[in-house]
């Protein structure tokens, strides 16, 4: 069983709409609040050798990335920290606070707990004008599909390509890009933390339409043989780039470095250079 | 080292004001948003024999209790669930959803993860008009100090008094009471999840004044010998009652069952029937 199977069960309890996006969307005043929570822990999320500062930074960055994926601006982050060793706390908090400060959020509070395994849950809050909110659902056949930045770098680092280690350990959430894309009129968006392929299938599920991507267009990690680089770009996890759709004439959006990798199709399948793309990437399994 | 020592270190990074209350307070529009996060996990928080439904209920209840302590109304809860066994998820989500529904909040989303030990982090959001917000700081010498409901029931259940088991396993956050007390003009408030004694010392730290309580006035758990009942009421954890201060003439507040247990004093000490109260209760330790 994987986490997407489980999500289907959760939908039976709390409803389908609550689980479709990177963030919950809560109307408040004339605006939308967005809220998201992410659990990270030592054995599955923090690669060996990571510093406390990097652990704190990453814990906040993954949450801010979800806020970016809605076209929203972050306001506050709460951090619940289950500590195996209390000596680790200070550097974790410094990394978390630095990530908040870099992206304009306030580290507003949290919870401390003793835990056998270092476990961090960061919760992010943001806000966005209703007309600038971008959801996963909204893609239209004929739109192009595009991606910010470079694909596969985090997984490349895990495979031993040391030049990509910073991309793995200190991910940079695409907040500026997400906000700009929301204002420009992107039609659908999500981040690709579980890999491009799984994310495209999530987009199929949300939209009921499909995607035809051209693997020659994928922005590949530098210094990796091309075949391996393409595999990492399609199926590697740990990248926090934004996958989005929009009318072709919308691009380029000023200040957003993005690559068109394909187009939205009517049929709900994912094709990579004409062949059905394998639905494989990073998943929690039990 | 305990969690209150650690909190002092965190304050050096993120600031003192961010850690003083049960919730973070975030101005938004003309209102205050309040936000709080709580980590619970199997070995320290879920007594043996607890059902999945009760685990889900409790995980939400502890968070809603923090919202109640600010005089705020809950709006949404996010649940990050680290599962040892995926079969546990459905009943946990049902309990969580039932607790949300009971108290007027929406279970708006969350995160799923595989974890060696069942670990749940619930994050609650609420809102309150600025004039009805109650903080831990605000107590004034001469105010009375009072408590909702009954003390020591959860700890009594842990000590084997089965008649209090529901209080332990299915805590009822005092939302109606918190909102009514905020509107009525309570001057300071917090919930007492780590026990009355520790909470009074937290109030001393926030307020710079002290408390003189009369142990004969404590609302004790039924069916427990008096000496033991008083110990449980002072130092037992797991109760989610509201401890608050207000001018004496404010009480009774309609629809709020509360007991005056003492008064606020100028000197920053906690006295129980004239003797300094031991600073002891539920604390996470490493």
From TrEMBL, chains A, B:
Pathway: Cofactor biosynthesis; thiamine diphosphate biosynthesis; thiamine diphosphate from thiamine phosphate: step 1/1. Residues 140-268 form the PurM-like C-terminal domain. Substrate binds at residues 45, 282. Its EC number is 2.7.4.16. Transmembrane segments: none annotated. One of its GO terms (biological process) is thiamine biosynthetic process. Pfam families: AIRS, AIRS_C. Coiled coil: none annotated. It catalyses: thiamine phosphate + ATP = thiamine diphosphate + ADP. Mg(2+) 5 binds at residue 194. Residues 21-128 form the PurM-like N-terminal domain. Belongs to the thiamine-monophosphate kinase family. Catalyzes the ATP-dependent phosphorylation of thiamine-monophosphate (TMP) to form thiamine-pyrophosphate (TPP), the active form of vitamin B1. Reaction mechanism of ThiL seems to utilize a direct, inline transfer of the gamma-phosphate of ATP to TMP rather than a phosphorylated enzyme intermediate. This is Thiamine-monophosphate kinase. The gene is thiL.
């Amino acid at each position: 069983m994987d986490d997407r199977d489980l999500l289907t069960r959760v939908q039976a309890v709390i409803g389908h709409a609550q689980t479709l996006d990177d963030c919950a969307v809560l109307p408040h005043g004339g605006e939308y609040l967005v809220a998201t929570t992410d659990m990270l822990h030592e054995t599955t999320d923090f690669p060996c050798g990571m510093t406390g500062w990097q652990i704190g930074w990453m814990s906040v960055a993954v949450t801010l990335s979800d806020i970016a994926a809605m076209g929203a601006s972050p306001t506050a982050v709460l951090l619940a920290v289950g500590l195996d060793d209390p000596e680790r706390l200070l550097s974790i908090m410094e990394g978390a606070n630095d990530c908040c400060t870099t992206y304009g959020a306030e580290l507003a509070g949290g919870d401390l707990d003793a835990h056998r395994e270092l476990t961090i849950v960061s919760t992010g809050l943001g806000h966005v004008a209703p007309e600038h909110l971008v959801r996963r659902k909204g893609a239209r056949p004929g739109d192009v599909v595009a991606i910010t930045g470079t694909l596969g770098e985090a997984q490349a680092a895990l495979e031993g390509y040391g030049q990509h280690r910073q991309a793995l350990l200190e991910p940079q959430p695409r907040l500026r890009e997400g906000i700009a894309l929301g204002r420009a009129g992107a039609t659908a968006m999500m981040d690709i933390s579980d890999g491009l392929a799984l994310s495209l299938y999530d987009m199929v599920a949300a939209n009921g339409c499909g995607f035809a991507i051209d693997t020659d267009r994928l922005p590949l990690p530098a210094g990796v043989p091309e075949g391996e680089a393409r595999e990492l770009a399609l199926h590697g996890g740990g990248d926090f780039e934004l996958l989005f759709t929009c009318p072709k004439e919308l691009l380029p959006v000023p200040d957003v470095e993005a690559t068109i990798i394909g187009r939205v199709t009517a049929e709900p399948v994912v094709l990579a250079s004409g062949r059905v793309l394998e639905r494989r990437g990073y998943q929690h399994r039990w």
